[in-house]
Structures are given as C-alpha cells and as structure tokens.
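Troubleshooting entry. Yesterday's outputs looked truncated, so today I'm pasting the complete records for two proteins to confirm everything comes through intact. If either block looks cut off, that's the bug. Protein one:
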Amino acid sequence: MKALVYGGTGPTGPYVIDGLIKRGYQVTIFHRGTHEIDLPKEVEHIHGDPHFVETLEEALGSNTYDLTIAMYGRLRFTAQVMQKRTPRFIAVGGVGVYRGWINLAMSEPSRIPIHEDAPLQTEPEVDKFSYRMVEAEWAVMAGHQAGHYNATHFRYPMIYGPRQLAPREWSIVRRILDGRQRLILADGGLTLESRGYAENMAHALMLAVDKPDACAGQIYNVRDDGLLDTKDWVNVIAGMMGHRFEFVEMPYALARPARIYNGRSQHRVLDISKVKAELGYTDIVPI
C-alpha cells in the first residue's frame, strides 16, 4: 500500500509518517524541501510547489496512491489534483472557518463549545482568509460527493509541541529564563482556547486511516481532550521549570504586552464529542 503525505516535516508530520509505516504503508511526502528533518530512510521525498495545480501535476507525474493525507499547500488545488490519483483522501484544515473565530466582531453570542455545524465564515468581502479555508473544505467534500475519493476532513486548533515555527509557550519560557518574577494575565488568565498536542492530532488522523467507513464524508473538530485556561498553561510551564510567578491581573484592553501568550479576549473552545463518539478519540499524550 502506498501513502502520500502533503507536508510531513512540520509538528504532526513525523508522527503521521510513523503511524503509516507501522500500518504497512510505503510513504512518500510532498514538500518544498525547505525544512528537511530526520525521517526514516525508506520515506520517499517529492520536492515541488504545492500551491498550484500545474506544479502539483508536474511533480506527481503519473503517480497514484492508496491513501493521501493533505496537511500542507492549497487544499482546494490538492483535492482537485488527487481526484484521479487516490481512493482515500484525508484533509487537514483549521478552525478559522468558524464565523467569529478570527474576526471576533462576527462571533455568535456565547455559543461554546463550537460544534461542527456552527455557522461558517462564508463572506469573502468580510474575511477573505477565512473564506478561503471554507472554500477548501467545500472542494474536498465536492470530490467526495462526486465519488472521486472517500474523504474525511479535520479542523485543527492551535498546535503545540516540537517543530513549531512560533510557539506561544516561548513567550512564557523566555520570561522565566530572564528571571522575571511578575507576569501580566489578562482577565485573570481565565480565557479558554482549544489546543492540540502534535502527537495527539496525528493520532486523530490515524483513527481515520483505520476506520475509513465510519468517517467517510465527515468533518471533525479535534483538540486535546484536556482543556486548560491561560493561567493553568502558565502554571504548568512554570512548575516544570521550577519557577513561580506573581501574577499581575488587568483587563484585556490594557494588557497589550501580554497578548502574545494571553491569546484572545474570549473563549474559543471546540466541541469534540463527534470525533470521540465516531472514531474513539482520546488523548494519547496528556497535557
């Protein structure tokens, strides 16, 4: 069996590749070749630009695969190119598709946790980036409905763990390394935001690999089953580093220096009851 992974060198990639190899797949990854990491020697690399139909088709040639996992590139083009190349297509997108997730002014009143059927951002003139994410999901599911492949789509939260380009936790770690005794917490550090540890998110994809019939044509929210507020995150990190902060609490509007680790001014929590019920998801690595 042959599997193609778009991406593969980011936070979840090595865990996905390892899971596929353990399941007997011959794995190929498609990426630009900019960020090479240590991977098993048997993993084949295709270097190309995953953002355009023409460059995708040129790099892939006549190759076909039993399974495709798309975690990188322009998903709407990837879905199009793979229509005649794979019978199984697992896609990864983001939670920015939800109305109000990025643009807080559009938020639905107090609707948390957010279910998969929550309103999406379908107005390109309001937020083009979010709309493009929704458009990508539509392209994936259109291929499924047309019978080109069996598709499953995952909406990822903010990922944490190794190989992150801009980890929010570093803002806290650096303050500890600098010996700072005080830390600003906006709104008491009570804000909840869904996150997903890289290995846990890869585990969710492997559940879809193992249960193609159960998740055919489905879209799933996924995040860590565990959920911490901002203050909890700070305390976990400080505790692991043997440090103790004196917290300085202030309204979010005044806490500008701390926004990089305080996140947004409202809760953003995904409901994951669907992926737990249908695929049996639970965290394999605790927070």
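Protein two, checking that the full record survives here as well:
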Amino acid sequence: MANKQESFEKSLERLEALVEQMESGELSLEKMITHFEEGSALVERCSKKLSEVELKIEKLVKRGESLEREPFDSEE
C-alpha cells in the first residue's frame, strides 16, 4: 500500500498503474482483490486531497467579509 505521506501525483500514478494492471485481464482473483482494495484507498486519499485544495482555493477567492465561489478554470 501507498505511504500516507505520498503526494497527490504519486498516488494518482499508482492508481493509474493498478487500473491498467486490472484491465489487462492477466491478474488472479486474489491479485484483483488486493489491487481493488489499494485502489479504493488511493481514490479516497486523492478525493480528500482535492477537497482540501478546493477549500484553499475558496479561501484565496474570499473578498471582504463574504466568500464568493468561483469555478477553477484550468485553461486560464
């Protein structure tokens, strides 16, 4: 399993590798279960990190006494 201190990027890379291996159809049932369990933990970790980043972005957008939500547009 991945280390709790791993970066978001490392967790995402590991998740992608697990999915690729699972989709290959070459894993035993036992390995599929192990990969699924690890992948589920990674999805949870990545989701939590994304939620934390979203909260930080909202704080940065804060104006005056009110919080104005603005969507994050990666194309800008």
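Both blocks look complete. Sanity check on protein two: Residues 29-61 form the longest helix (33 residues).
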